[in-house]
């Protein structure tokens, strides 16, 4: 489905003429992330209360994700492929960490 998402984003960006230079897209992503951060800061009273997503959270998070996919499209990155690679690397690292915990630290105390 991820490949489908990238195609959907590319098609809608073409239809809406949303393509922009990479620096502009990065600034837009920074703005969207900053807006999410400000929302969390306000909802949690600067971290003093637990975070509970409000009704607009999915839409705002979706806008941020859309921007990431648009940036990927504009720079020729296949998002599904790099996400899978990242996930595989993290999984391998987690397995190595778990194996180290099971066998102990390589430098056992005497």
Q: Would you give an account of this structure?
A:
- Helices cover 74% and strands 0% of the residues.
- The mean pLDDT is 89.
- The longest helix is centred in the last third of the chain and has 25 residues.
- The protein is an all-alpha fold and 110 residues long.
- The chain contains 4 helices and no strands.
By DSSP (H or I, 4+ residues per run), the number of helices equals 4
| Proportion of helical residues | over 70%
* Assembly context of the chains: single chain
What is the 3D form?
flat
Residue share in β-strands? under 5%
Instruction: For the record, give the distance between the C-alpha atoms at the N and C termini, rounded to a whole number.
Output: 52 Å
**Count of individual beta strands:** 0
Averaging pLDDT over every residue, what do you get? 89
Secondary structure class reads mainly alpha
H/E element sequence = HHHH
Low-confidence stretches: none
Biggest β-sheet, characterized? Answer: none
The Cα radius of gyration reads 20 Å
